[in-house]
Design brief:
This protein has 12 helices and 2 strands; from the N terminus they run H-H-H-H-H-H-H-H-H-H-H-H-E-E. It is mostly helical.
Length: 233
């Protein structure tokens, strides 16, 4: 039709784009494609955001009370927390293409785990260092999962199911938010920190085992389901 109207030859690439853009039947199989053809990455991005949601929501909502239990100012802690969170985001932007997605992810989770362990188990005489560890925890979130979950979603999945993958990720992550909101308020401070430790540890192990490296890959290459020479499954 386009060739008849324009009286010109349509390139093969244009024809392919038109074919790919055709609307599917209402009973589309986007989720089926996501969970069968991209099972590994669907599991990875879902659990990645789930563990991050637990660590992030708990540390931000209950951070002031956690700091108060160690004798720190909730207001000062919150200001420093968000300031370092932004610093972490900026660091991630600056290093992500040279350091890599996978390395940034693992560094972020590892830094979160180390700093929250110190905050939990350091003696009360180390209150200043505890405050420092808490705000560094925020910075490592920005360097790692807080930024990388927004990078992996579009880079791991082809255009056809990219929005579906994002919805899947957000849905799984919201479960972490629900768990945090319903369970954590009834827990003492130490138990809250213990759950953050678990979330950081689980996120670190998950990333070591599954986090791919997508730097230097175009969206076209990723859409062809190739990452690091391996076919995405």
């Amino acid at each position: 039709v386009i060739e008849k109207v324009t009286n010109s030859q349509v390139s093969t690439e244009t024809k392919k784009l038109i074919m790919d853009a055709k609307l599917e039947e209402e009973s589309s199989k986007y989720y089926k494609d996501l969970l069968t053809k991209y099972t590994k990455w669907a599991i990875f991005i879902g659990l990645f955001y789930f563990f991050f949601a637990i660590a992030f929501i708990d540390s931000t909502i209950y951070g002031p009370s956690i700091l108060a239990s160690f004798g720190e100012s909730g207001l000062i802690g919150s200001i420093l927390y968000w300031s370092l969170f932004v610093v972490g985001d900026i660091i991630c932007i600056l290093i992500i293409d040279s350091f890599g997605r996978r390395n940034s992810t693992i560094t972020g989770w590892a830094g979160m785990l180390v700093t929250i362990l110190f905050l939990t188990f350091a003696p009360p005489t180390f209150n200043v260092l505890k405050l420092l560890s808490f705000i560094l925890f925020a910075m490592f979130q920005g360097i790692g999962p807080a930024s990388l979950h927004m990078v992996y979603s579009p880079e791991l999945f082809p255009t056809k199911i990219r929005a579906t993958a994002e919805g899947w990720k957000q849905g799984i992550g919201r479960l972490g938010g629900v768990i945090t909101g319903l369970i954590f308020p009834a827990l003492p401070s130490f138990d809250e920190l213990s759950i953050i430790i678990f979330a950081c540890f689980a996120g670190l192990i998950l990333s070591i085992l599954l986090a791919p490296e997508t730097k230097d890959k175009t969206l076209e290459e990723i859409s062809e389901r190739k990452i690091g020479g391996e076919t995405i499954s």
